[in-house]
Amino acid sequence: MFAPNTPIDRSRVLSALLWGAVGFSAFLTLVQGYALVVEPLVSITQGVFVATCVGAVTAVGAYALEHRLLAWMAGRVSDDPQSHDGDSKSKS
């Protein structure tokens, strides 16, 4: 994944870790909500383990895909600068 002697971009790592924390928290929130409404789906230990796995996968996915998504979105914006023929009205 990394070329030799390539510095790691700390802002990308921090962003990926924060997305991992969001995934971790979201999974635990869903498990707790399900337990409150229906019945406990997993034990606390199992829930934390699975949430850690979800957070890790989210962090790796965010690190791998974030720069690609940004480049794709920038390309979409530059490809079609006048999508509405100059007027400000929505065409949806």
Automatic annotation (TrEMBL):
Swiss-Prot/TrEMBL keywords: Membrane, Transmembrane, Transmembrane helix
Pfam families, alphabetized: DUF7981
Transmembrane intervals: 43-65
Keyword Transmembrane helix: yes
Residues of the DUF7981 domain: 10-70
InterPro entries (UniProt xref): DUF7981
Name of the protein: DUF7981 domain-containing protein
Organism: Natronorubrum daqingense
